[in-house]
Amino acid sequence: MTTNKKHEILKSLDSLDQAQTEKVMEYIQGLVGSAQNETYYRLFKREAMKEIRQALNNRRNVNAAF
Q1: Taking a C-beta distance cutoff of 8 angstroms, is the pair 4, 12 a contact?
Q2: How far apart are CA 26 and CA 56, in angstroms?
Q3: Are the C-beta atoms of residues 6 and 17 closer than 8 Å to each other?
Q4: Overall average pLDDT of the 6-22 stretch
Q5: CA atoms 37, 40, 46, 51: torsion sign
Q6: DSSP structure class, residue 16
Q7: Can you give the pLDDT at residue 63?
Q8: pLDDT in tens, 25-44
Q9: What gap in Å lies between CA 41 and CA 30, rounded to an integer?
Q10: Under a CB-based contact definition with an 8 Å cutoff, are residues 16 and 24 in contact?
Q11: Mean pLDDT in the chain?
């Protein structure tokens, strides 16, 4: 985002009353929170897939030994 657009956004926020400002802030916090949840979910999923892959590989190795 360019600096000019950021200044335009800040100017428009200045024109809001307190209730509107709080709604905007809640919306932004929701976006940030959902992004953090998405990041956590992706990391969790990646680790789960690694563990599943390791378990399957270990099972194959045990079956091959018999």
Answers
A1: no
A2: 44
A3: no
A4: 85
A5: negative
A6: S
A7: 64
A8: 888 888 888 878 888 889 99
A9: 16
A10: yes
A11: 83
